[in-house]
Amino acid sequence: MEKEKILEIVNEINKIARLNHMYNKIEEIGDNYDEFVEDFYFIEWLRMATDLGASLDEVINTSVLFDELLEELEMAILNAENKLYNKCTLLLMYNKKDLGKIIRNIEDYSDNNIINVILNFAKNNFNEIEAEIFVLELRKLLQGGQGDDRTRV
Fold this sequence. Notes:
By secondary structure, the protein is an all-alpha fold. The chain is built from four helices and no strands.
């Protein structure tokens, strides 16, 4: 049962990773397009003939389209993060003891701490992962957190 729940969490993490990757690509394209717009304005300012076949309105509309696409991706990422949060909450609520069989000493951590570690991992991850890799990463991240707590004492 816990493996199925972990797979659901991994699927959400992978969805966030794909969305983060798309967001970065679109943002990069938008930045390059902004440079193109600057060049387009410069060409128009010089009153040079262009073979671009695009009017100023088309150029501006495309720029607005990139901005709207980035906003939609931001919303999709937030929705995926909320879904991940809910799945994590359910997993910890009903399967924390079973998770202890996979991740040693998981009961030493508060549910909020575990959820925050998972959410931070998802936000900073840009590559899809497998369930086994996720479990190893979670173990490592939780042990790192425990190590940090020990050094503060």
